[in-house]
Amino acid sequence: MPELPEVETMCRGIAPVVGGKIQQLTLCDLPLKPIRLVPDLAKLKQRIEGKTIEGISRKGKRVVLSLSSDNLLVIEPRMTGLLLVSDPPNESHLRLKFKLKNAGAKELLYWDRRGLGGVTLFTSEEFQQHFDRTLGPDALTVSLKELTQRFQKSSREIKVALLDQKAIAGIGNLYAAEILHLSKIHPRRVCQTITKAEWKCLYQAMQGILTEAILYEGSTLSDGTYRNALNKNGSYQNHHRVYAKAGEICPLCKKAEIERIVQAQRSTFFCGKCQK
Q1: Distance CA 55, CA 57 (A)
Q2: What is the arrangement of strands in the sheet containing 21-27, beginning at the earlier edge strand?
Q3: Angle at which helices 196-215 and 4-13 pack, to 10 degrees?
Q4: For the stretch 134-143, what's the b/e string if a residue is b when 16 or more beta carbons lie within 10 angstroms of its beta carbon?
Q5: DSSP secondary structure string for all residues of the chain
Q6: Could you say which of 37, 92, 164, 215 is the most buried, measured as most Cβ atoms within 10 Å of its Cβ?
Q7: Among all residues, which ones are annotated catalytic?
């Protein structure tokens, strides 16, 4: 967390910063684990201050700011990072401030409770080389044919395979569980055993759930960490079918209880009746 829908919501929420010139970058002085900055703060300030933010895009679970210098600033929220144009949840975990001029927002703020996120500046060439090597196609734009080709010969369990960002970018633990439930595929099914018809169901479920989650501005879980760019809750958590609902009745069959198992050290939630 945050996954594709939350990061896409961040990108859309910080749209007012486009056209703004970065007057000053400030690293907040906190007695906490520092976030990762590449290059270091002094070099980063030198290369981005005075530059204009010309566009915003998403790369998997990362926000990408395109700068007038033809460089790209990639912000990776990881577990608890947020990008905001409003007051942060608190000041004690505010990591970076981008002071802006001539933008629809005065500041762009990066907040990160656990400090696991990072900010990296790439040249266009470095960006292309790095992400061609480390990320698969985006889960929201991949075709059914490419999805099937990438997974159908794998001997991995489908839930574990969907979390591999080199295979497909953007899906995390929460949405993998939701996608598999809607497509009625058991999370322990080996990819090689999934039929052509089932791949189509999985693909349709993936597109539908991710699109719907973006519409509801992502999921804010019980820890309250994820917030949109205006420091407001997302609301897709109110539409979860299985995630974190162990012991509750399945909303599809309305008979069996949601079960919890552990795969690759992550909790998986599913219905044993619907997902055989």
Answers
A1: 7
A2: 21-27, 94-101, 107-112, 81-84
A3: 30
A4: ebbbbbbebe
A5: ---HHHHHHHHHHTGGGTT-EEEEEEE---SSPPPEEES-HHHHHHHHTT-BEEEEEEETTEEEEEETTSEEEEEE-TTTEEEESS--S-STTEEEEEEEESSSSSEEEEEESS---EEEEEEHHHHHHHHHHH---BTTT--HHHHHHHHTT--SBHHHHHT-TTTSBS--HHHHHHHHHHTT--TT-BGGG--HHHHHHHHHHHHHHHHHHHHTT----TT-----TTS----GGGG-SSTT-TTSBPTTTSSSBEEEEEETTEEEEEETTT--
A6: 37
A7: 2-3, 61, 266
- Amino acid identity, position 276: K
Distance CA 272, CA 276 (A): 6
pLDDT digits (tens, 9 = 90+) for 93-144: 999 999 999 999 999 999 999 999 999 999 999 999 999 999 999 999 999 9
Which amino acid would we find at residue 47?
R
pLDDT in tens, 164-176: 999 999 999 999 9
> How many Å separate Cα 262 from the centre of its chain?
21
Residue 97, CA atoms < 13 Å, CB-side half-sphere: 15
- Rounded CA-CA distance 227/179 in Å is 22
Alpha-carbon gap, residue 104 to 33, rounded angstroms? 31
